[in-house]
Amino acid sequence: MAKWLLIEVNNLFKRDRIVRNLEIFQDVIVISLCVSLFCVMLLRLGDMFLSFLHPLDLRQVTSDILFILILVELFRLLIDYLQARSISVGAAVEITIVSALREVILRGVLEIPREQIFGLSLFLAVLAGILILLPLMSPLFHYMKINDQEIES
């Protein structure tokens, strides 16, 4: 009886078609983000090479390189999402760590107030904890996923 009712509801709302169209729309958004990121990477790379014509500012060059690397990793994260339909938590945490460290390099450690340094240190410690615990938690999530599929069957 419940399966018949579920089929009727699906037919009424054409749920499969709606979900498929929403996934296509989401893919268009992710592809547009990829194209935008690629354009920003090219612009920043051009700016970085043009900055070599002026006297070398090591802090700015390092900041530009780190920013381009962050954009490359975000681009890869979006490509992985398009392929696997899931986000790699480890990659997202790594991007966040590099982004936080880039800001410290850009502003300089001595120019950042002590409270912000403590907050940033705590933030980086939590992110490092996530990176350490992620491989330990992965089998647990896989086990839970298998058990959920067995329950549904």
> In the residues, how many domains can be counted?
1
The rounded distance between the terminal residues' Cα atoms is: 17 Å
Q: Please tell me how large the radius of gyration is.
A: 22 Å
Tell me the fraction of residues in β-strands, as a range. under 5%
- Overall shape: it is flat
| String of helices and strands | HHHHH
**Class based on secondary structure composition and strand pairing:** mainly alpha
Task: Please count the helical segments.
Answer: 5
Largest sheet: none
How many extended strands? 0
- Average pLDDT over all residues: 80
The percent range for helix content is: over 70%
- In the predicted model, the low-confidence regions spanning at least 5 consecutive residues are none
General description of the model:
The chain is mainly alpha-helical and 153 residues long. It is built from 5 helices and no strands. The longest helix is centred in the C-terminal third of the chain and has 39 residues, at 114-152. The relative contact order is 0.06.
